[in-house]
Amino acid sequence: MTFYFDTHTHAVSGDTVTYPARPLGGIRSDWSLSRPVDGDELIDHLDRAGVRWAALVQAATVYGVDNRYAAHVLARHADRLVGVCSVDFLSDSAVEDLQYWIQERGFRGVRIRIADGDTKVADPGAGLSDERMAAVWDYIDDHGIPVCIQMHSKHTGELLKVLGEHPATTVVLDHAGRPDASGGPEYPMLGEIEQLAAFPGVHLKITPAALRRLGNQPGADVSEVLRRLAKKFGTGHLMWGSDFPAAQGSLRESRELIESRLSWLAEHERQAVLGHNAARVYGVRVG
Q: DSSP per residue over 104-148, as a string?
């Protein structure tokens, strides 16, 4: 039986008094208004999709860096979910905030957004390598905290600067880092994101948004690009995420879409991408 670990889910409360919207950048996401799912409903969708574990990623386009609702959901479902919080990396209290959410509220990872879709969302100062972030990167590195990064491949240079100082940091790139696969079949721009394969802690998150974006790039063959990324990074550094409910369709449909795109993997590689890699990164015991 396949062990499924979904690395990218969100939850939104119907209680707008206790958990008011404070979206990052001041603009609330459309999906959170049109198809919100609360914590208990998320568990129901995971059950229907046959998914044992999931990462609950802070819905920053709803709550910004107020992680209280995600913390509430984690407390209710500690046997099914691990949490990825958000903090303001430029804040003077960033380290203290991260300590609180990780050590006191039970989150296991943190997320930073430098871009969303094709536009920037609250670009953090000078980018990922802004010198004001030095203390929080030190803390993440020293404590082995996985960091999810929402970026485009054009931001690779900034991440390379960070990894130059912290080469062992565990990084999970949302939507595979939005690689540039235009200009096939040689895909000259893929080399941009592939530079990160030199660092053993870098992982790519394969999501419906990543597949859709690759499919829309001129000359790109999605299966061919995935094969190349798998060869470059190794299948031990790929993991799937449904992006539910931000992605349209059911969680099961999202899972099945990604599985269909990875059907060429050997069985042990498939098992790794669908669950075991994420379990290793987030410290979850399989079985």
A: IT---EEEEES-BTTB-SS--TT-TT-GGGHHHHHHHHHTT--EE
Instruction: Write the class of the CATH domain 5-282.
Output: alpha beta
Tokens read off for 272: 């790794």
Q: What is the largest CA-CA distance in the chain?
A: 53
CA geometry: angle 55, 170, 4, nearest 5 deg: 35
Closest of 103, 114, 117, 13 to residue 66, by C-alpha:
13
Q: Which of 2, 39, 82 is nearest to 284 (CA)?
A: 82
Give the residue extent of every domain in the chain. Answer: 5-282
Residue with tokens 């410290």: 283
Predicted confidence band at 18 (pLDDT cuts at 50, 70, 90)? very high
- Nearest of 184, 186, 112 to residue 155 by alpha carbon: 112
Query: What is the chain's mean pLDDT, rounded?
Result: 94
- Summarised one tens digit per residue, pLDDT across range 110-130 is 999 887 654 444 556 668 989
Above pLDDT 70, what percent of the chain?
96
Give yes or no for a contact between 207 and 241, defined as CB atoms under 8 angstroms apart. yes
Of all helices (H) and strands (E), which one includes residue 26? none
pLDDT at 114: 83
Enumerate residues 6+ apart whose C-beta is below 8 A from 44.
Answer: none
Instruction: Specify the pLDDT at position 183.
Output: 85
Chain-centre distance for alpha carbon 243: 9
Mean pLDDT of 38-45: 98
Q: Whole-angstrom Cα distance, residue 193 to residue 104?
A: 35
Q: Are 74 and 83 in contact (CB under 8 A)?
A: yes
